[in-house]
Every structure is written in C-alpha cells, then in structure tokens.
C-alpha cells in the first residue's frame, strides 16, 4: 500500500516536465511564449493581463522566469544557443532546451535539466509543430503563424497545460483546436444576430417616441 502511494506520488511529480514553450523568430524576437506554473506553486504576482498575454509564471520549481525582464533575458540566452548551432538539444542549467528551426521560426521546449525526459520533451515539441502544420494547412513561417496566432495559442494549450504534457499526437491536438473554434463562431453569430435585432428594435422604439 505504502509503496503504491509512493510510486504514484513520484509519477505525479514527473508529469510536471515542461517549463516553457516558446516560438522565437529569426532575430530572436518573441512570437509566442508560454511559461508554466504548476498548481502547487503560489500564484502571487500573477495577473489576468499577464495570463492574457500568454506569459505565465516561472516553470516547475524554477525561480527567475516570473518577470518579463527575466523571461526576455532567458529567451536571449536560448537564442544564443540556437545561433551557435550544435544540434537541437542544449543544456542551459538549470534548464534543458530542445529547439527546432522551421523556415524563419525557432520552436523551443524547456524542461528542468535535473529531471526532464528528453524523449518526451522532443516528442511534445514535434507534436506541437506538426499540429501547427496541420492547422495552418501549409508551410510554417512567421507570416502564417502570426496570421493564425489564435490557433497556434490554442494548439499550445492543447499540448501543454500548467506544465503537464496533455497530448503528443499532432492530429489529436489539431482536431481539438478546430472543433471548439467552430462552436465559438456559431455563438458569435448568434449573439451578433440578437444584438442586431435588438438594436433595430430599439431604434424603432426611439423613433416612435420622438414622433409622439
Ligand atoms: C500563497 O500566497 C498567499 C498570499 O498571497 C498566502 O496567504 C499563502 O500562505 C501562500 N501559500 C503558500 C503555499 O505559499
Ligand atoms: C527529436 O524528434 C525529431 C523529429 O521527430 C527527430 O528527428 C530527432 O531525432 C529526435 N531527437 C531525439 C534526441 O529524440
């Protein structure tokens, strides 16, 4: 019994393997940045604005990536590693970064160096980039990714949530992103239709009132 509990505890810990998911352009400028904060960490200092920008707290057990200034400095050193070449896997203590360059974009996944699963991180990064490929229906390049940034952000959220890897199958990620989007469009249309109907009703009423 005790053994079993201990095992499940340690496997829970290993779920928190992603510190950040980043897309930097060919100049190292941020296109997308998601920093993850596991639930057991205190969310002090987080604000809705920060969350809306897709920039969360520092990653699992990682101080120093909470503030924008720290994140920018980190992204600068990540980009330095990419520029110097030397493959896709780079230790950047206390982080491990895996990078993939596609046309004019660099996709980066960050995990803790001490206990991250390289293969799992690599597979997750592939799933993320492949799902974007499916969603954008064409070549991945900065222009396309910026145009479809809403889809790319949703794909990121379907791939990793709170530092937990949710899905490593690109088709499954793409499917989950495309489905809710259709629903959202329906709701927007319905609300718009109602709003238009209400506006024209209100105008008619105020015209009548003026005529009285
Ligand atoms: C989290 O922060 C709140 C105040 O923002 C504090 O009262 C609480 O004790 C903190 N919890 C932990 C686990 O640090
Ligand atoms: C990471 O994934 C890519 C693409 O799937 C593959 O080519 C590469 O060999 C993988 N690297 C490692 C270290 O698993």
Automatic annotation (TrEMBL):
Protein location: Cytoplasm; Golgi apparatus membrane; Cytoplasmic vesicle, COPI-coated vesicle membrane
GO BP term, pick one: intra-Golgi vesicle-mediated transport
Signal peptide positions on this chain: 1-28
One Gene Ontology cellular component annotation held by this UniProt entry: COPI vesicle coat
Membrane-topology annotation of the record: Peripheral membrane protein
SUPFAM superfamilies to which the protein is assigned, alphabetical: SNARE-like
Keyword Protein transport attached: yes
InterPro entries assigned: AP_mu_sigma_su, Coatomer_zeta, Longin-like_dom_sf
Keywords from the UniProt entry: Cytoplasm, Cytoplasmic vesicle, ER-Golgi transport, Golgi apparatus, Membrane, Protein transport, Signal, Transport
Pfam families: Clat_adaptor_s
Residues in AP complex mu/sigma subunit domain copies: 69-178
Main location: cytoplasm
UniProt function note: The coatomer is a cytosolic protein complex that binds to dilysine motifs and reversibly associates with Golgi non-clathrin-coated vesicles, which further mediate biosynthetic protein transport from the ER, via the Golgi up to the trans Golgi network. Coatomer complex is required for budding from Golgi membranes, and is essential for the retrograde Golgi-to-ER transport of dilysine-tagged proteins. The zeta subunit may be involved in regulating the coat assembly and, hence, the rate of biosynthetic protein transport due to its association-dissociation properties with the coatomer complex.
Family: Belongs to the adaptor complexes small subunit family.
Complex and partners: Oligomeric complex that consists of at least the alpha, beta, beta', gamma, delta, epsilon and zeta subunits.
Name of this chain's protein: Coatomer subunit zeta
Source taxonomy: Eukaryota, Fungi, Dikarya, Basidiomycota, Agaricomycotina
């Amino acid at each position: 019994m005790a053994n079993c509990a201990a095992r499940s505890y340690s496997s829970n810990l290993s779920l928190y393997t992603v510190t950040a998911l980043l897309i930097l352009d060919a100049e190292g400028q941020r296109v997308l940045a998601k920093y993850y904060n596991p639930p057991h960490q205190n969310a002090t200092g987080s604000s809705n604005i920060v969350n809306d920008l897709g920039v969360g707290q520092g990653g699992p057990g990682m101080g120093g990536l909470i503030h924008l200034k720290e994140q920018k400095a980190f992204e600068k050193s990540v980009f330095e590693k990419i520029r110097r070449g030397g493959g896709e896997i780079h230790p950047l203590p206390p982080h491990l970064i895996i990078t993939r360059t596609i046309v004019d974009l660099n996709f980066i996944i960050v995990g803790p160096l001490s206990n991250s699963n390289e293969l799992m991180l690599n597979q997750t990064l592939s799933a993320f980039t492949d799902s974007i490929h499916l969603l954008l229906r064409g070549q991945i390049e900065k222009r396309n990714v910026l145009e479809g940034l809403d889809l790319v952000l949703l794909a990121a959220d379907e791939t990793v949530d709170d530092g937990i890897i949710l899905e490593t199958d690109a088709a499954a990620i793409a499917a989950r992103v495309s489905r809710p989007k259709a629903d959202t469009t329906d709701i927007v249309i319905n609300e718009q239709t109602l709003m238009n109907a209400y506006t024209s009703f209100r105008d008619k009423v105020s015209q009548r009132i003026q005529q009285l």
